[in-house]
Amino acid sequence: MAAASISVTETPLVLYALRRADDALILGHRLSEWCGHAPALEEDMALANMGLDLLGQARELYSYAADVEGQGNDEDKFAYLRDVRQYRNLLLLEQPNGDFARTMARQFFYAAFADLYWRAMMKSTDATLAAIAAKSEKESAYHLRHSSEWMVRLGDGTEESHRRAQGAVDDLWAYTGEMFGVDESERALIERGVAVDPATLHPQWLKTVSNVVGEATLALPKGGWMQQGGRSGRHSEHLGHLLSELQSMQRTFPGATW
Amino acid sequence: MVTVIRNDADLRQRAWDAAAAVVDPEIPVLTIADLGVLRDVAVTDGHVEVAITPTYSGCPAMNMITLEIELALEREGFRNSKVRTVLSPAWTTDWMSEQGRQKLREYGIAPPQAASSRRALFGVQQVACPQCSSEDTEVLSEFGSTSCKALWRCRSCREPFDYFKCH
């Protein structure tokens, strides 16, 4: 018998931690899909390493959400026993890997944000979140450097790599706006200094992204329309497929350990 | 029969020494004390509580290190010891001891540089080869065989080597 999904009491702080944990888990899982398939051995290791960093961040955040919620859930239950509509990650991060350029563009847009975000969150009035931020910030700096170098190498590379990199930037751009949005639940945390208002980081993010994209001889799309929904559980079709793979073992054999 | 009553300071020292001797499973020349992963050892009513801190969020060695600490304390006669993980203040390579850096170099891993160079987006780093000490080296990959290492190559002696990333 398949394991049923858990129910979660999403107070603002629980929801906040789950959103960031889901971001890290879903992007980390996407990167792990490259394991054994990357274009070079060094990249295979790099992507797996970054996936591992993100998985570590996810575990800390899920554990904290479980502590705050206090309903007997834990990191494994949050990861394995929530359905697609209960996931709160950014739409950007669940987008399929596509080719290497698409994976790097997704990584670059997010790392440029995460690096700023976690550094700002080190000043959170919540001691646990500040501590998690201090660890994540160091890792994000590496992720940003890695993906920035690849954006330049691909954009300013061959005609083919340029074409693919530009295509990836164009297709993913509409998912970047969601990183800077907040709802009422999060607004309450921002007012108490627990969370940072991501909108305040947008100018710096845009500067970093514009610089790297410019150096890569690529162009940012002109369109301003942005897709959203992941933060409230309205996902693209891709997340369900990802979760079916991520969760299949625990859904089929509830509580299995090794 | 003589009963030796040890005070808490003695007990704590014994517990600390046992925990401090545990090595990193990925870099067996370094103890967790060398690495700065061991943060605190407290003894209350004969029970030991050890605090450790992860180097990288996803470091899989932490589970192994926790188990090794429990076993080391068990061998020293401490029962039901607890190991907890602390995140704050965050570990940086500055926590690594000078002795630890020396041991790393002798083991063939270039020790971490000062953390300040990390922020440069397209930063140029100068890392000395742990084999021949030449500074004519190049990075092959920012991400190496474990979370904490990058892969480098020496242009002088042609040997590839691991570099412990600064953090």
Describe this structure in words.
Chain A has a single domain, classed as Ferritin (Up-down Bundle), CATH 1.20.1260.10. Chain A contains ten helices and no strands. In chain A, α1 packs across α8 and α5 runs antiparallel to α6. The radius of gyration of chain A is 18 Å and the shape is globular. The mean pLDDT of chain A is 96. The model of chain B has no long low-confidence stretch (mean pLDDT 86). Chain B contains four helices and seven strands. Chain B has two domains: 84 residues, Fe-S cluster assembly (FSCA) (GMP Synthetase, Chain A, domain 3, 2-Layer Sandwich); 56 residues, no CATH class. In chain B, β5 and β6 form a beta hairpin. In chain B, 25% of the residues lie in helices and 21% in strands. Classes of the chains: A mainly alpha (258), B alpha/beta (167). The interface between A and B is medium-sized, with 35 and 27 residues.
Topology, element by element:
The complex is a heterodimer of chains A (about 260) and B (about 170).
Chain A: H1 12-32, H2 41-69, H3 75-80, H4 91-94, H5 100-121, H6 127-155, H7 159-172, H8 184-191, H9 202-215, H10 237-252
Helix pairs in contact in A: 1-2, 1-8, 2-6, 5-6, 5-7, 5-9, 6-7
Chain B: H1 8-20, H2 32-35, E1 38-44, E2 47-52, H3 61-75, E3 82-85, H4 98-107, E4 109-110, E5 137-141, E6 149-154, E7 160-164
Parallel strand pairs in B: 2-3, 4-7
Antiparallel strand pairs in B: 1-2, 5-6, 6-7
Helix pairs in contact in B: 1-3
